[in-house]
Design brief:
Layout (H helix, E strand, L loop, with lengths): L1 E6 L17 E2 L2 E2 H11 L4 E6 L3 H10 L5 E6 L8 H6 L8 E5 L2 E2 L2 H8 L6 E5 L10 E5 L2 E6 L4 H6 L1 E12 L1 H16 L11 H7 L3 E4 L6 E2 L3 H13 L4 H8 L1 H4 L6 H20 L3 H28 L4 H28 L5 H25 L21 H9 L5 H10 L3 H22 L1 H4 L4
Parallel strand pairs: 1-4, 1-6, 4-5, 8-12
Antiparallel strand pairs: 2-3, 6-11, 7-13, 8-11, 9-10, 9-11
């Protein structure tokens, strides 16, 4: 799959001295770098970058952050005309599955995962919570099929079709649909229709090929058109607080990045630490419990390193992502039995083993349901998804911190507290009940999306 990133525009509303919007800094990184990292993390290796305004700066910046990505830079010398010309500039690349994106959008990586993993071969990403003020590209259709996109839907369209939401600016097309879009662009440009946005060609495409949609589902994103948008983007970025375990794991990243250890090797090491932790807990006794707490915390820290290294070095892969999930499942599913066996050795009654099996079953069903959600591109297994417990854009820093830490990524700290305070029996009972409540409420809440319905 190729990604076509449109970064040729001037961005007049940002002011005369703003420079290219894709080079604006947010949280210490350019918008272009953030987007490239997200694409790399979801396995996109071919990037076609269309430049125009201050083309040299944009191209050099992209080259500096391309790493192993195959970067193709194309110039649109007529960038001050319609945006259709930028997409038309990339027409020679319409021979593959495509992601077509605007370069002025700040969004979580979950958006890219959602598009790529969508069951729709062709789909557009929409935000159903947006209100149409005349500036937004609104997406309409019937059933689950997209049929129109426009900033100013007519009364007739409003009566005939359903509003799906505002286009985020990302469109996924398979090879055949991409070729059809190429023909439509060629027809317009050859006829001299060049002072339009590329979205104005999309209704003709939607008529010829079936296009579905995926939703942003409340995840924060913003299209940066004005200085006020940039301020909001910076606030949004700063509110994406890391949970405590991720903060601890990142303390060691400068050293970790220097080591010649692959992400999958870190995952394998985390598996060893996790199983050693469960084995230590299962031996019973307070001292073994403390050792298990230390090993379980190390398991979580190393488990964070594999993803961080993969994203930073461009080594992310679908197999690696599922290997990581599999390791988490094996270790955590075995934890319930490990606790029960250790408690029995410490003299607990026979019924404790039944509680252990109940916890094990609950953890298995939890991974089964959330793993299925990950296949569909959402849920706690997707980095950047709201279900993962990340901070939210809010005026309350405290609220963001609480939400960032109210997450299963801090589960090891709860386990450690239970073992240190010698509260294993209470914790096991709480785990056995809580995990079933969690997967049942998640299944009910997301039942329609889990069954592919919109």
């Amino acid at each position: 799959m190729k990604a076509i990133l449109l970064a040729a525009g001037v961005g007049k509303r940002m002011g005369p001295n703003a420079g290219p919007k894709c080079l604006l800094k947010i949280g210490g990184r350019s918008l272009l770098e953030i987007t490239m990292n997200s694409l790399r993390s979801v396995g996109v290796r071919d990037l076609v970058l269309v430049v125009g305004f201050r083309k040299g700066e944009v191209a050099a910046h992209a080259q500096a952050h391309a790493r192993e990505m195959r970067l193709t830079v194309l110039e649109n010398p007529r960038y001050q005309e319609g945006a259709i010309l930028s997409l038309w500039t990339a027409r020679s690349n319409f021979d593959d599955d495509l992601l077509i994106m605007d370069a002025d959008v700040l969004c979580p990586q979950a958006f890219f995962e959602r598009l790529i993993s969508s069951p729709h071969a062709n789909c557009i990403l929409v935000d159903p919570s947006s209100v149409n003020t005349g500036e937004e590209q609104m997406v309409l259709g019937k059933g689950s099929r997209v049929l129109f996109i426009t900033k100013n839907p007519s009364d007739q369209l409003r009566k005939q079709m359903t509003f799906f939401g505002e286009s985020v600016g990302f469109l996924k097309l398979d090879k055949n649909a991409a070729a059809e879009l190429g023909r439509l662009l060629e027809s317009r440009v050859s006829a001299g229709v060049v002072n339009i946005e590329h979205e104005q060609v999309y209704p003709d495409l939607f008529e010829k090929v079936e296009v579905g949609f995926e939703t942003a589902d409340g995840l924060p994103w913003i299209e940066i058109d004005t200085p006020a948008d940039l301020d909001r983007a910076i606030r949004m970025s700063s509110s994406n607080l890391l949970c405590l375990n991720r903060r601890i794991s990142r303390w060691f990243l400068p050293l970790i990045m220097k080591l010649l250890v692959t992400p999958n090797q870190w995952t394998t090491l985390s598996l060893g630490l996790g199983l050693a932790s469960v084995a230590s807990i299962a031996r019973g006794g307070y001292g073994n419990g403390l050792m298990g707490a230390v090993l379980f915390q190390l398991f979580y820290l190393v488990d964070n390193w594999d993803g961080e290294v993969a994203r930073a070095k461009g080594l992310s892969s679908t197999w690696g992502g599922w290997f990581d999930v599999g390791v988490d499942a094996v270790v955590q599913i075995s934890l319930g039995l490990g606790l029960a066996v250790g408690l029995r050795k410490d003299g607990a009654p026979d019924w404790v083993m039944n509680v252990g099996w109940l916890a094990t079953l609950g953890l298995f069903l939890d991974f089964l349901v959330t793993g299925w959600a990950k296949v569909l591109g959402f849920g706690p297994g997707v980095l950047g998804d709201s279900a993962r417990g990340r901070g939210v854009s809010s005026d309350s820093r405290i609220k963001g911190w609480i939400r960032a830490n109210w997450t299963n990524e801090n589960f090891s700290l709860v386990v450690a507290a239970a073992l240190i305070l010698n509260g294993k029996l209470f914790f096991l009972c709480l785990l056995a009940a809580g995990v079933h409540l969690y997967w049942l409420q998640f299944l009910w809440k997301e039942r329609l999306r889990l069954l592919y319905f919109k």
